[in-house]
Specification:
The structure holds two protein chains of two kinds. Chain A is an alpha/beta fold. Chain A has 13 helices and 16 strands. Chain B is built from three helices and no strands. The C terminus of chain B is likely disordered. The chains are: A alpha/beta, B mainly alpha.
Chain lengths: ~425, ~120
């Protein structure tokens, strides 16, 4: 079996305990309803955590290409615990691409997603899942490897996970079908995964009720540009590991679709961006440093920056992969393709505004080399959830077709990490899904 | 001076959480792996109250989830422009891009805009 086959098999095995817990919850609710003499309709809600919010575990030994077909491994948590922040440990997240284009984990030690991150007893979705349980919603958190492209993750979910999940639940829940009425909700980058499923599932399952995004970066944001050059302060170890972290980040294909939208898309839809009364984007957000960076300058297209070779690091410098940038552009096109009426009817976007005007917005971009100090500078703030600008967290096509399906959560609890637990978000989700 | 509004994400600012992490990184320059090293890490953490650790955990998680590890304030920057150039609907032709430039045409280093770091 190939590396990827073994990895996906291991990934599926890692999800089984969570499926068992789903089954336990399902049967407990069923028993309670029988006791109460109630028989309400059941619905399943799959939550896709945000980028970097799924816990990743790394195999303790390498995959053996000459080994047996059914290789199994033990795993240790890699992302995220305190040791991840120490000694440059986050370097172990690095990936490498085979000549055939397959992405493997560093040292061919398989990495799988398993549950949600928890750091110093803090985990992001406790409020949301507690609320689901209280409301009798059958919830399942689908952890995903945020280092990989969202289309890979979405394909795995649709083609492999869902049938597996359905079979196990039916077998242990008196043949109840957990997909008889189900919805998807994606937080942050998880919203891109559910967006991909909505736009690409063929046919769209008739029993898929709604696809909800919360604070999903449809049109990107500025911080990813910094990361190509700066790594991440929290794992750089005071500069000791900055180069290693830049290389690690540049090796992750998923990160290439996190930055600002392509310029041609902005130009084609600039009336829509400008006419968003609450959260307009009056100009393309990435501009050349030359000239005045605090007023609209020459746009610098994040997917095709000019002049060639003078914006991003070179491959020898950090491993930055222009091929992945081109792939990410295609992915962006797929994620922003026109919505059919049926798709739009199922789609709901929730965007956050902390009302503190504390979200980084536009950037300016110097030429490279040098790549250090960083050529990227933030040049303005805008309303948003503190991480994602509000102009970028709603789908323009949806807003044109079904404006009522674009909802806003505002106030301090709209902050990016906690927005899923916000009472406003929960109220929106309840209304959308018909939860009393 | 009025007390700032409590941030529901964490009582710790990004700068304080970053300082917490940097102290930890200085105390443990190598990734703790052995039982002895992990016990030393636990002993180090025992210096802090549970509430402090939770506050640090919340802020670090929040900042790792794609936001910069610094406090962002509206007055860090001038207001964003409210009106752009003349509408130019439709894809911009490649031929209209700026001609290739070299770094020799950029401003002297000392006059360049720098990323604001706190």
């Amino acid at each position: 079996m190939s590396y990827d086959s073994v990895r996906m098999s291991e990934q599926m095995d890692a999800l089984d305990p969570s499926i068992d817990e789903f089954i336990d919850r399902y049967n407990t609710i069923t028993a309670a309803l029988v006791l109460l003499g109630l028989n309400p309709a059941r619905q399943t809600l799959f939550l896709f955590p945000g980028g970097m919010a799924s816990r990743l575990k790394r195999a303790t030994k390498a995959w053996d290409p000459a080994g047996p077909a059914s290789q199994t491994f033990k795993y240790k948590e890699l992302w995220l615990n305190l040791p991840t922040l120490l000694g440059g440990e986050a370097r172990q997240l690095r990936m490498h691409k085979t000549p055939g284009g397959e992405y493997r984990d560093k040292g061919d030690r398989i990495i799988i997603a398993d549950r949600v991150v928890s750091l110093l007893s803090v985990s992001p979705y406790v409020g949301f899942t507690t609320w689901c349980s209280l409301k009798g919603v059958d919830w399942f958190i689908f952890p995903w490897d945020w280092r990989r492209n969202v289309d890979d993750v979405a394909t795995f979910f649709v083609d492999r996970f869902l049938p597996h999940f359905q079979g196990l639940v039916q077998a242990k829940c008196n043949n109840a079908d957990p997909l008889a009425d189900f919805s998807l909700i994606g937080h942050s980058a998880g919203g891109l995964v559910v967006n991909w499923i909505l736009r690409n599932a063929d046919p769209l399952p008739a029993t898929l009720r709604k696809v909800i995004t919360v604070a999903a970066p449809f049109y990107g944001y500025g911080h990813q540009l910094h990361r190509w050059f700066e790594g991440d302060d929290l794992v750089n170890g005071g500069g000791l590991f900055t180069d290693a972290m830049r290389r690690m980040i540049s090796s992750l294909p998923g990160c290439y679709s996190w930055h600002f939208l392509p310029e041609d898309f902005y130009n084609a839809h600039q009336c829509d961006f400008k006419s968003d009364l609450a959260y307009p984007l009056p100009n393309y957000p990435s501009t050349d440093f030359t000239g005045n960076p605090f007023t609209p300058g020459n746009p610098v297209d994040t997917y095709d920056p000019q002049p060639p070779g003078q914006r991003y690091p070179t491959k020898p410098q950090t491993g930055f992969d222009c091929d992945e940038l081109h792939k990410a552009k295609k992915l962006f096109d797929a994620l922003t393709s026109p919505l059919s009426t049926a798709q739009a009817a199922k789609f709901v976007n929730i965007r956050g505004d902390t009302t503190a005007n504390n979200t980084l917005n536009t950037t300016s971009w110097k030429l490279v080399p040098p790549i250090s100090p960083s050529p990227i500078a933030d040049t303005s703030v805008t309303p948003g959830d503190g991480t994602q600008p509000a102009w970028g967290t709603r789908d323009i096509g949806l807003f044109k077709q079904v404006p009522g399906n674009v909802l806003i959560v505002s106030g301090p609890d709209a902050a990016h990490m906690i927005i899923m637990n916000s009472p406003q978000t929960l109220a929106h989700v309840a209304a959308v899904l018909g939860i009393p | 001076m009025a007390k700032p509004v409590t941030d529901p994400v964490s009582s710790m600012t990004s700068e304080e959480a970053f300082e917490f992490v940097r102290k930890l990184q200085k105390a443990f320059p190598k990734t703790p792996r052995s039982k002895k090293e992990l016990a030393a890490l636990q002993k180090y953490l025992a210096k802090y109250k549970d509430a402090e650790l939770r506050a640090a955990g919340s802020r670090v998680l929040s900042d790792l989830m794609q936001r910069p590890s610094r406090t962002i304030k509206a007055d860090d920057f001038p207001p964003a422009p409210v009106a752009g150039p003349d509408p130019n609907v439709g894809p911009k032709p490649k031929a209209r891009r700026a001609p290739k430039r070299t770094t020799s045409g950029t401003k002297p280093r000392g006059t360049r805009h720098r990323t604001k770091r706190r």
